Amino acid sequence: GSVVASYPYDDSPTHRLTGVYSKSADDEVFKYLAKAYASHHPIMRTGKPNCPEEEAETFPDGITNGAQWYDVEGGMQDYNYVWANCFEITLELSCCKYPPTSELPKEWENNRESLLAFIEKV
Q: How confident is the model over 24-72, as pLDDT tens digits?
């Protein structure tokens, strides 16, 4: 996991493992939506999630193009965009896939304003 808002495409024509910006026709809209969420999140907006074993990983403005981060062939985000015209972003909300119950109130506080800002864009 990480703390970042990712947007299409997750797959790239070259299928390189990482580092290929795979721009969609609606790239600016996706960046706008991702920034709407990330800019209200106290950790995500810094672009520095500081996840264990990935301390050096950074995301400008707390967002990333999926394929630039890592290539995912056949992911739902791309499928829904291409085949259903569904504009979705992927939100990585924690370095830990299954945070302990004691951490959930803090996670809610970290994400509440981001969720409201994102819903307002809809």
A: 999 999 999 999 999 999 999 999 999 998 999 999 999 999 999 999 9
By annotation, the residues acting in catalysis are 92
- pLDDT at 21 (0 to 100): 97
CA gap 19, 122 in Å, rounded: 30
How far apart (Å, rounded) are the C-alpha atoms in residues 25 and 28?
A: 8
Per the document, the length of the chain is 122
Lowest mean pLDDT segment, chosen from 21-25, 54-58, 114-118:
54-58
Cβ–Cβ under 8 Å, residues 23 and 65: yes
> Radius of gyration (Cα) for the chain, nearest Å?
14
Euclidean distance between CA atoms 118 and 87, whole angstroms? 12
CA distance 13 to 116: 35
Fold of 4-120: Aminopeptidase (3.40.630)
Q: What are the tokens at 57?
A: 């990983």
In the chain, domain spans: 4-120
Roughly what angle, to the nearest 10 degrees, separates helices 104-121 and 27-38? 140
